[in-house]
Each structure stands twice: as structure tokens, then as C-alpha cells.
Design brief:
Oligomer: single chain
Low-confidence stretches: none
Order of helices and strands: HHHHHHHH
Helix content: over 70%
Number of strands: 0
Distance between the termini: 34 Å
Strand content: under 5%
Structural class: mainly alpha
Amino acid sequence: KNVLNVIGRTGVVGWVSAGIVFANLPASIMLVHGVNGWPGVGAAGAAWATLAVNALAGTWICAFVLKRKHAMVPNRAALQAFGQALEIVRLGWAPGAQQALESTLFVAVLFVLGTYSSLWLAAATVVFAVMELNYAISGALGEVLAARLAAARVSGSRELVTYLKIGAGVSGLCAALLALCVWLCA
């Protein structure tokens, strides 16, 4: 996804994401409730459907990127160097750990609320879905902004501050609009 952001092919991510949603819905329904006399596997079916659809989407995106790697990677040998891999791990461990901690916290909170009451679980699920939507929107904007900042820095452009202001403004506006929608619907 980040490679596609860097080369300005973000539409591919949008189409694949739409495919994930539209494939996950019928797959979840079939695996949870069953089809043609098969009883389904209950709530675990939703997890299996999500896993299968995301694996297919990830495979497709990887194939798309690898098919076009000659246009994206000017020096393939440099990316294969062990030092580059270490640098990626060094830079990526903290965001990965943060995501793991947040996910663990959300699962724990939902589990505890589910043991208390199904209404509390439903309410928390809606709140977490709204939080996840806000996180996804700002994360997507941040990924594109990071790619633009990196390109501006490499080219020596002085537009870094402009990019930061635009990115912060758009992300803040999206979060404010989402908060307004939640407030109006609550």
C-alpha cells in the first residue's frame, strides 16, 4: 500500500479495499449462517471470511506491485541489501508495537464488556468502529503525506511546511466532520 502511495497509484488501494468489503459481506453471511443446508460455523465464520478475503487482497496487491516493480524501483539491488531490511525493522518496530498494543486493548475491553452485557458490547463495538474509521482516514492521509514529504525532501523542495499544514488541516477536518456526524446521530 505504501509503495502504491509513493508512486501515486492510490486508486488501486481504494478498489481493492472496496473489493474486500463487498467480498467479505457475503462470505461472512455464508460462513456464519450457512448456505444450502450447510449450518455454517457461527461467529468464527466472520473471522475466517475476513482472513480469506484479506489474504486474497494482499496477494493481489503484491502481484500488482511486483508486476510494476521496474517502474517503481530504480535500483532493485539497493532494496535487496541486508542493511535496508534492518533499517525498515528499526523504523517499523515502534508503530507495529503501538498497533499491537491498541488492538490488544480493544479486544480486552470488548471481551470484558461482552461478559457484562450484550448491550454494552454492542455500544462499545459502535464506538470502536467510529474510532477505527477516524484512525483509518487519518492513517491513509498520513501515508500519502509521508510519501509526498519524502519526495519533497529528496528533491530539495521547500514545500515541506506547506505539505505538513495541508496534511494536518485535511486530517483535522475529516476528524471534525466524523465527530459532528457521531454527535448528530447520538
